[in-house]
Design brief:
It contains nine helices and eight strands. It has 228 residues and is α/β, with parallel strands linked by helices. The protein has a single domain, classed as TIM Barrel (Alpha-Beta Barrel). It has an eight-stranded parallel beta sheet. Strand 2, helix 3 and strand 3 form a beta-alpha-beta unit. The mean pLDDT is 96.
Length: 228
Amino acid sequence: MATISEKLQLVRGRIHAAVSQTARPEGCVALLAVSKTFPAVTVREAMAAGQHRFGENYVQEALDKMAELTDLRDQIEWHMIGPLQSNKTRAVAEHFDWVHTIDRLKIAQRLNDQRPAHLPALQVCVQVNTSGEDSKSGVAPGDALALAREVAALPRLRLRGVMALPAPTADVAEQNRQLAEVRAVYEHLLSQGLPLDTLSMGMSADLEAAVAQGSTMVRVGTALFGQR
Ligand SMILES: *Cc1c(COP(=O)(O)O)cnc(C)c1O
């Protein structure tokens, strides 16, 4: 069994190799380690190996983990990457650094109103749904610009970019179609003058394809911590 440190090196190597296939500079893709379902001790181990950015999906699980890691709070960047209900926004506004899953204005307004004054603005991404399934989270590509403009106007949020969670598929062409559609939304928002720097897409199975399509932040769980 590889250690977390070894698996981090492997994933960093995959990112490095994927970036080197593009014209983009080394270091342009950040690694978000997705620690959902894994205990605080696992986060500690990854931190000891130099990882500082962690993604969580479930608010209560994340709060419990954070409570065990208060000694490291200043060194950790916590990213909320799961669907967000209205009744959980306060805890997220108070405890997270980033939220990737903004898909409606009401949630953004609540986070804005609830972000404590002593903390910097909450860093956020608008989640785009490119799979065309009504049931999935995320704003339709055609509605992303309007939502992004509204979110960008909220003073306690800082809009950083676009996030997507394409429907899992073994069909490489379909995978690339979805990743390219997310990229097109991101570039459209940039072309409209929104000052974005984050395209959050790519996971354990598709990080190479996502980097090829311009991802600036890959969210990796299984390849670092094992099966959930
Ligand atoms: C769980 C999760 C990931 C990590 O997926 P892996 O396939 O385990 O790398 C990334 N993004 C989101 C939104 C997730 O929920």
